[in-house]
Amino acid sequence: MWFLAGTFGGQVKRACKVPGGRPIAVPVINHVGDRASCTAFMSGASGTVLFDGKVVAPEAYEGDSITVRGAQGNPVTGEERRFTATGCGLWVQLPPPAPGTHALKVRGRSGDFAIVVDYALTVAASAT
Question: How many beta carbons lie within 10 A of that of residue 80, not counting itself?
Answer without folding.
Answer: 11
